[in-house]
Amino acid sequence: MNTEKYGEYNNERQHTDWGFVYSSTPSEAVDSYIIDDIDGIIPPDLAGVTFYKTGPGNFERNGKKFEHVLDGDGFVIAINFQKDGTGSGTSAKYSGRFVETEYFCEERDEDKIKYRNVFGTQRDGGVLANAFDLTLKNVANTNVLQWGDRLFVFWEAGRPYELNPKTLETLRSVTEDGPLSGLGGIDCKVRGITIDDNGPIDKIMNVGKSFTAHPHVVDDTLIGFKTETNAKTNYLTLEFTEYDSKWNEKSSTAFSTKSLPPHDFSVSDSFYSFFDNPYAEMDNMKYLLGLKSPTQIMQLALRQNTKIHL
After folding, report:
1. Tens-place pLDDT, residues 52-75
2. Please, which residues bridge with residue 216 across strands?
3. What is the C-alpha to C-alpha distance for residues 52 and 100, in angstroms, rounded to an integer?
4. pLDDT 10s digits, 157-196
5. SS (H, E, C) 110-149
């Protein structure tokens, strides 16, 4: 945000204007049952189809509100359409469950904010509690997609988490395959940056790549990209990868530019394309000292011409 033009971000105003958005998912939503309150008739062609949706579902710990709605813990619902007991109609089954990342489980069990977040939520204690901790909580709240027989939930600044397609249970990944391949290790705590391109320094500091929250499906191919920014040169590298229905890699190509990572991209017959996110100097020291979150130090160069990369 260009604070010179628009002023400092006002969190109190956001909570006032968007207060209803900060309503956490009620406990009874974590459940699974046949939906019996239906108007009309479910089209029989939907039998065998499952609709998935995700978004932020929890916005507080121990009475303390999160600073931003996008810091909310990911919650996934599934509506599974199936033939009913009579065989002549179609019923719908609801399932809802939080994405049980290691971050979510720790904070749930202790009812306490234990991690820094991208949009401003931090531990109590100010500088002493947050300084020099670059680990950001993976909230797993942005997108959910079933590809082949596997279901993943995505967040742009981290790694995907795999869910059981039927129960929505969060699976503990032990292999680095599919969208987890090439991210630098399942247990990396700092993602989206590199110092020596997956060399010994990266491994010592436990940093790795991120995977986009917005992969695209074109016919029998899923296309996504991994992202990392070199901390020494500030060059962003996007590695676009195409996968078949079993998450086997079909092709891959990389592109580098001085820009912030794109939120999304588009796909045509010949090109991947995305908008450039030009940025001015950012006060990284405030982030390192635990005074600001990553988004709170961003300064977009709004007066620059629009640039589209192909």
Report:
1. 999 999 999 999 999 999 999 999
2. 223
3. 17
4. 999 999 999 999 999 877 788 899 988 877 888 898 888 8
5. HCCCCCECCCCCCCCCHHHHHCCCCCECCCCCCEEEEECC
Amino acid at site 155: W
Q: Which of 220, 221, 257 is nearest to 239 (CA)?
A: 257
Q: Compute how many other C-beta atoms are within 10 angstroms of the C-beta atom of residue 299.
A: 15
